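Example 3.2
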Amino acid sequence: MNSLQRSVVTKTGYDHGWEVAVEDAVAGRVTLTSAHHRTEAAVRLHPASPGWLVQLPSGRLPDELARVEGIEMPTSACFLARTERDLGRLLDHAARLARTLPDLPCQQFEQAVAQELSGLSGPTAATEVERMVRQRVGQQVYRQSLMDYWGGACAVTGIAIPELLRASHARPWAECRTDEERLNVFNGYLLAAHLDALFDRLLMTFSETGEAVFAPSLTPEVRHKLALSDDLRLRWISPNHMPFLQAHRMQFDSLRKGVNRCST
């Protein structure tokens, strides 16, 4: 990799969430990092064809990045970008996903809460005001995490208009035992407003393979009026969603049983 090629990688990284670059001319690679996440991306030229190979640490991030349409992953944790544009798109998605990994949203949350409470004093600040600040800031952090994870588009419809999107919880905020659960990007989905309303009110849930499951009260006629097709499903679903989704389905099923008992 010559100096011009290294400069292209450095600038592309800077423009897409990787503001720190360490060049290694001997190894023929540029290692990209960021102060906003703890992931490293090692970029080198493809040895046999035009483009770059991007190596990421093994684990959850490569698995999630491989789900993104158009991303090529020829080997484990190693991705192929054939053009400079492809490299920017790959690095952008990788940075967004890296910011959603466990612990990082919680760190952002605690820092933001501490900053907002720093000017307050007295018993009120330690109780009700703090509770309100923590909830508001937590919901903001959670929404941004879901926006990053789902690429700013509805997890079902792919609608990418931020004003129409809601950060849905599978296990409700008030029922989560820890902030880690509340802010876990897998504890819910980024949904268009009408789907969020159904999911939140337990009128819709998702199967283990991602298909939408509707309450009996949403008859075919009602679903037609709401433009809810029979083949609605999550764009993808991760094994990490399962514990939270199973809890949501249990509540969904329990509510249906309760309705059935009342109607007999």
